[in-house]
Amino acid sequence: MRRLGELEAEIMDRFWRWSRPATVREIVDDINLLREVAYTTVTTVTTILFHKGYLTRAREGRIWVYRAAATREAYAAALMADGLDASEDRPAALLAFVRELDAGELAALREALSSVDAPADGRR
Which of 12, 21, 27, 55 has the fewest CB atoms within 10 Å, i.e. the most exposed one? Predict the structure, then answer.
């Protein structure tokens, strides 16, 4: 999974923060509170995000209403998995990642690991 471009990330951030369906008009209006962006540009990028699988959509009359296909956390997890896949030594890459964590993040990681059930084959 490749990292989102700047406008893609701005659009997805709204879907993730709002946790609800939205129209292109709502996205444009919200972005335009901070900077100018054309409706057609957001329409194009939103359609691209739909075709890439980041968004789902449904028709409401003549308008497409979009929704995030997955959570921000699922997106971040997929990026981390891709980062590990880029390494020839996944355990070494994991160790390097863990060494960058602060105490709070390490505690959260320990808690997450303790809550994961071992798969049936005994592997983690």
Answer: 21
